Fold this protein.
Amino acid sequence: MTTERFARKAFKTAVAIALAVPLVVFAADAVVAKIRFVEVGAAAGVRTEHHTRRFAGPHGDVLRMFTSGGASVAAGDYDGDGLDDLFVTDSGEGKKSHLFHNNGNLTFTEVTDKAGVGGGNDPLSIVADALWFDYDNDGREDLLVARFGKPILYHNEGNGKFKDVSATAGFNKFGNTIAVIAFDYDNDGFLDVMFGNYFKPENLLDLKDPHVLPNDLDNAINGGGVTLWHNNGNGTFTDVTDKAGFGKHTGWTLDLGHGDFNNDGFQDVYLACDYGTDRIFFNNGDGTFRDATEKSTGFDTRKGMNAEVADYDNDGWLDIYVTNITDEYMKECNMLWHNNHDGTFTDVSKETGTCATLWGWAAKFGDFDNDGWQDLFVVNGLRSAGKENYIPVLLNDLITKPGVDFTDVANWPNIGNMTWSGYQKKKMFRNLDGQAFKEISAEAGVDNDLDGRGIAIADFDNDGRLDIYQTNADQPSLFYHGVSEGIGNWVQFKLTGTKSNRDAIGARITLTAGGLTQIREIDGGNGYAGQSSKRAHFGIGKASKIDSVQIHWPSGLVEKIDGVAMNKINKITEGKGIQR
Amino acid sequence: MSRRTFACLAARLFPVCLLLASPMTGADDAFDKAERALASKDFDSALGSFEEALTADPDNLRNASEYRQATIQKAIAGHPKEGSPADFDREIAFFGKLTEANPKASNAFLNYGFSYVDKIPAAGSITQVILANNALGYFTKSIELKSTWIALYTRGNSYLYWPRIFGRAPLALDDLEKAYAMQKAEGKKSYHVRVYISLGDAYWKTDNLDKARAIWKEGAAQFPDSTPLKDRLARDGDALKDYIDNVLDPNKRVDTNLRELWMTQ
C-alpha cells in the first residue's frame, strides 16, 4: 500500500472513532452490569507456584532473565465430561507441570501423576507452553508440551491416562520454543502445528557459543523463527516450514495467532516478535503462505509479546491485538490492528485506549458482562524483586557502551536481586460498543501486581460467566471466578467437526441477536502462554431471542443452525446441527 | 563581506553573526546551489551541495542546519511517518568525517549531535536511547570547544527527554541555568523563549513546581504570545504531567531547525 493510501485509511479510522464517541457515551449509560471477579485459586485447588529455570555458569543469571517465560496454562476438556480442565506448566529443573481435573463445583483435583503428563523439565530441556488438541480426531484431547528442547506429544488414551508418542509423531527437531498453536492450514481435516521459537536452535543449557542474544534490540534477525508441521493424518507430522514459506523468518518469535483475516476460508497467521518487527502471513490456499507484512501492517521495531485475534468491533472481520512495552523508560504502545477489510490493518490502540499496559504479556478478549462486545484482559510485569532498578544498570553497562556486542551473554550485566518493570498492575478494559475501551481493573478485582505471563479464559463452572486463569513467572498462579451481576444473556457452542478437524479449530460462528451480529472463530492457542476454551461464548445482552446462527466449517460447509437454546451450552456436530 | 554575513549584521544578530561569519564565498555558492536543488526536490544533489558548502566552511551553523533539514525532508518524502533509520546514516557519517577533519569546529560537533537527534523518531525504542546518548556526547564536545547559548540550551533540553529514572534532569537544570544567564546578559531575542520553557520543565522534572511556574511566568511576561508557556501555566497536577510527557515523547520529532537564530529577532 502506498504511504498516502495508508495515511488515508488511518485518517478514516480515526474519524470514525471520533464520530462514534457520543454513541459510546450513550451506550455505556444503558449497560447496568458491573464486571467483577473473585480470586479463588487456593479454594479451587489450582494455585501452583511457577519456577523459572536456573542456569549454571557465570552467565546463568542473564540466561535466566532471558528465559523468564514458561509459565503457561491450557484449558481443555480432556475427559469429555463437559467441563474444561487445566494444564499448568512449570519450568524449574525436575519440577512437574500440573493437570487439574475439573470436578464441576469450582474445585479441581490434581491428576498429574495418574495421567503421566508432569514431565519435561529435564536437565537439557525447559517446559515453556502447552496445548490441547485432538491431532488424530479420535474425540479425545491430546496434549502437546512445547519446550526449549524437543516437544512432547501426549496421546490421550481415554482412561485418564496419556502416552508419550513424541518419537513416532516426528517432532524431532530441537527448538527454543515459547509458543505453539494448532490449526488446519490446508483444510484437510487434520490439525497442523506451528511452533514459535525465541532463541536460535542452540541449547542454552549446554551453551557452546555465548553469542545467542539478539543482534539488535529493535531489529534483531538472529532468533528462532517458526516451524510449521503438517499433520499427515496417520499420527505423524512433517516439517513443511520452508515449503510453506516461513523459512526466511528468523525473528525472535514470542507468540503466534491464527485466524481467517481476509475471510477467504483459509487460516492466516500473525507472528508477534520480540526485538523487531512482527510478521503477518496470508494463506495462499495451496499449502503456502505469503509474507504480507509490508503491505498489511508495515514493519515495526517494537517488542511484540502477544498475538490475540478477535472481532472487537463486530464488523465481521478479525482484528489483532499485540502487546508491546510501554513503560516509564520505553514508550512503544501496544497495537490494536483494526482490520480494514482489504488485507491491510490500522493500529487504533491509542484511539481506543488500549495502548499502554506497561510491560505487556498475554492479552485476551472475552465478553465478561455478556453485552455483546468483547472486553480485554492484559497481564504484565517482568520481574518484581528488590528495590534497586535494573534499567539504569542496563543503560550504563550495556546499551550506551560504544561498540558493545549485544549477542554476547558475557556483555550483559547481572540482574541479581534487582527489579525490572516489576509490581505492575494488570489491566482489564471494558469494551464500549466496539469504539473504545475503558479501564476497569480495580473495580473488576483483577488489578494484581504479580509478574503475569499467560491467560486462559473459559467458563469453568458452566454458569454463563467467563472465568480467568492467570499464570505468573516465579510466583503463584491466580484463578479468577467471574461473579458479575446483572449481566446479559448468553449462549455457548461446543463444536465437533466430522469432515473438518474434530476440534473445529478455524470454524467460524456468526450469530445475530438483539440487532447485533457477532463472530467467533475457534482458535488453537492464540495469545501468549495460554490456551482458552475451545467452546465459543457469546454475550447477547438483553436480547430475548437469537435471530440466526451460521457456522462456516473449515471443510467449506456453511451450516445454518436452528433451535439454539439461550443461556445454555449448545453442542453442534458438523452437518448434523444441534445434538441434544 | 559575504551576502549572508551582511544580512546577518543588518538584522543586528551579532552573536549569531559571529557563528555564521566567514569569508568562504565558495561555501556560499555551494549553499545557494543546494537551496536551488532542494527547491526542486532534487534531494541527492542538494545534500551533495550542502556537504560541499560545509566542507568549505565546517563551522557554519546555517549550512549545517539546512543540510540536516534537507535530510529530514528526503527521509519523510521517501518513507512513511518519520523516515527509515538508514535515511539518516549519510549525514551522521558526513558529520563524523567533518569533525574528524575539523576537531575545533564546535558548531560541527553541535550538528553532529543533532544528526543523531534527527534519527531518533525513525528508530526503535532501544536504539533511540543509544542515539540520544550519542547526541549528548557530541553536544558536550561542542560545549567543551565553545560554551555558546545554543549549545547549552540544546544539551540541557536534550537531558529533559530522558525518563526520570536515569537522573538526568539535574544536568538539564545546570545547562539551562547557564543559558538563561547568558540570555539575560544580552538583548531580548525571540528564541530566548525556548530557555524559559525548558528551564521551567527542568524545575518541574526535579520536583520544584514553584520555581518552574516562576520561570514560566517570567517567560510569559517577556513573551505573552507563547502558546507552550500558556499551556503549561494553565495546567496543574496530572494534566501538567500528561502535557509535558507528551511534549517530551521521544517518538515525536524534535524541531532541530536552527533557522530562527538568524531569521528572527
